[in-house]
Amino acid sequence: MPCCNSPAVLKTSINGLPFFAHLSGECGTAPETRWHMSGKTAVLAALTNMGIKADEEVSGRSPSGDSWKADVLFTIPGRTIVIELQRSYQHLRDFIRRQERYIASSVECYWLVRADTFITLSKATSRLLLKRDFGNVFPSEGIGSGMLPELPVSMLEVEGELMVQFGGFKAATVPVWLSGILDGAYQYSGGSWGLD
Predict the structure, then answer these.
(1) 32-68, pLDDT tens digit by residue?
(2) H/E stretch holding 86
(3) What span, in angstroms and rounded, lies between the C-alpha atoms of 75 and 105?
(4) Alpha-carbon distance 52 to 45, whole Å?
(5) 57-71 core/surface letters (b: 16 or more CB in 10 A; e: else)
(6) Which one, of 145, 168, 172, lies nearest residue 156 by Cα?
(7) Most CB atoms within 10 A, among 3, 111, 151, 185?
(8) Is 4 strand, coil or helix?
(9) 3-class DSSP string for 130-161
(10) Nearest to 124 by CA among 102, 103, 153, 146
């Protein structure tokens, strides 16, 4: 790769365009982006203000030995929760694979992504959702943002006030979104994740 000495692999986008990506999935030498740092800082600050101790870049392993590294991890009675911030493109299968590792580790994982990543992911999840749950027939009630019930993903906007955006063109501050996760108000409904 031009940014580091990591080996590259040829991939194909959902639109059929070939591109090169890091073989391991991420550049090991790239610094954290401003978006990523701003998002982590906002999540950590919100949790601290809620009286919850959280740690960043926490490593763990699933019972089968698969390793993972959480951007933000915190525990409350009976629950271990991870917030993952994904700035760059990641294939749907990688989102699902990472989500399954957390589930196998008895960890809840919630994703925050940039708007362009959300749009790309939504195209892939919509295709899967239509095929898997609706037999390739578009339902009359629609599919919302087309997200999957097993993959809680929302957008994080870091320009101006940091806002989490989700289905139905709704948004909330990071503290309100985190409160929704804790009290169960952040749920999947009508093809989208959002706050009830």
Answers:
(1) 678 888 999 999 999 999 999 999 999 999 999 999 9
(2) strand 79-86
(3) 13
(4) 10
(5) ebebebeeeeebebb
(6) 172
(7) 111
(8) coil
(9) HHHHHCCCCCCCCCCCCCCCCCCEEEEECCCC
(10) 146
Tokens 């708007």 label which residue?
Answer: 115
β 8-12/54-61 pair status: unpaired
Q: Which residue has the tokens 């959280």?
A: 54
Q: One-letter amino acid identity for 126? A: S
In this structure, what are the phi and psi dihedrals at residue 26, rounded to the nearest 5 degrees?
Answer: -145, 155
Q: 79-86 and 67-76: which strand pairing?
A: antiparallel
Question: What does the alpha-carbon distance between residue 101 and residue 164 come to, in Å, rounded to a whole number?
Answer: 24
Q: Tokens for 175?
A: 């503290």
| Identity of residue 67 | S
The C-alpha atoms of residue 117 and residue 112 are separated, in whole angstroms, by 10
94-100 long-range contacts, CB within 8 A, separation 24+: 94/25, 95/121, 95/151, 95/153, 96/150, 96/151, 98/68, 99/150, 99/151
List, in order, residues 6 or more apart from 110 with CB less than 8 Å away. 81, 82, 83, 84, 152, 154, 181, 186
Per-residue model confidence as pLDDT tens digits over 106-133 = 999 999 999 889 989 988 888 888 887 8
Q: What is the DSSP string of 105-122?
A: TT-EEEEEE-HHHHHHHH
